[in-house]
Task: structure prediction
Amino acid sequence: MYSRFVPLIISLLLSACAGLLKKPEPPQVQLAGVVLTQANLVEQSFIIKLQLSNPNDFDLPIKGLLYKIDVNDQEFVYGSSLAAVTLPAKGNAVLEVDAKTNLQALVRQLRGIKAAENASYRIRGEISTTNLSLPFDHRGETSLGNLIRWLPR
Result:
């Protein structure tokens, strides 16, 4: 009698296990803000606020992050973070990370934004979870006023 249900039970268990082994979708990463913390002739330091959105149906524990931000197709800042955060399922979190740029990159940006009303940006990198790395790449646009507010005066 039970022998008829054994294949059904085995297939149900195998399909449940396959769902557990599914590779998570990478979080969506967007620029939420930039704050200048230090500036000198060699290097400028910022705190970058990144909005992370988890598209998965389960919590995603993040152990670290590497990233680069380009503005108008020019490298602007880069950085990393070892701050641990758990993104709730289908939820969001803001992560503050340190970033650095050099004077040459900053001057290129200042020259490039004079003629534009809007500035395009690209943020790309890799998020580390407990046992794998998830790449991300996002493009967006911000107004010139927002970009100027981020830069040192």
Q: What stands out?
A: The two ends are 81 Å apart (CA to CA).
